[in-house]
Amino acid sequence: MKLRNPKNRSDLNIKKSDKVLEVGGGHNPHPRANLVVDKFLDTNYHRSGDIKVLKHQEFMQADGENLPFKDKEFDYAICCQVLEHVEHPEKFLAEQFRVAKQGFLEVPSLLGEYLFPRESHKWIMHEIDNTLYLVDKSSIDFKVGYDLTELTQMYLPKHSIGFKILERTHPNLITIRLEWKDDFKFVVNPTDPEILKYFSGKWQEEWAHVFFPPKTMWQEFKDAAGAMWHITKTSFQSKVLKRNVY
């Protein structure tokens, strides 16, 4: 079942003793992962740089749709910005549900995919009532435009305080993050017109009130202050203490 929507990749319920797998760590593995697997070694088509492995991590080449591990071998599985690339999401997710007791998934949101589309992304996703819906972009004649990945995923998160605050005060605006136990609900290529209406056409004003409810001025100030505190703390840990943080 879905447990919650974490605010960021560091906001995860992982114990110190947990054995953690990351599926598709690519150029930016999560520091908490003990073992990182990746399918492609000789191409960066699906990632923004060469594969990186941190000093404390093991690496293994493996296909996320057919993981070479025993049932519930891991306490926790992390998967960030990978599901949108895979050929068979049902198999890919089933394998993580099989090998891990719980985990974390991060993917581009519906808005994120339209703002920053990539040719390597096969699926566009939207979470509705705690169910993740995946639509094949070719089925809705999705047009890949100008690729802003370098700006929005690499440069601005590092150099723009305003962008960092936006990411933290509206954590599921550009990405979908969900933490799960055992599994979570998802639908691949839904046929319900009430679901498909979100994936093409024009965004409706009333939808914003559902997915991004308005906040009071006090809550906005509180969230912004909390975001600044988190930015300050992580910057200190990264630059002064030299820790790998998100």
UniProtKB/TrEMBL annotation:
Keywords: Methyltransferase, Transferase. InterPro entries: Methyltransf_11, SAM-dependent_MTases_sf. One of its GO terms (biological process) is methylation. Residues 53-103 form the Methyltransferase type domain. GO terms for molecular function: methyltransferase activity. This is Methyltransferase domain-containing protein.
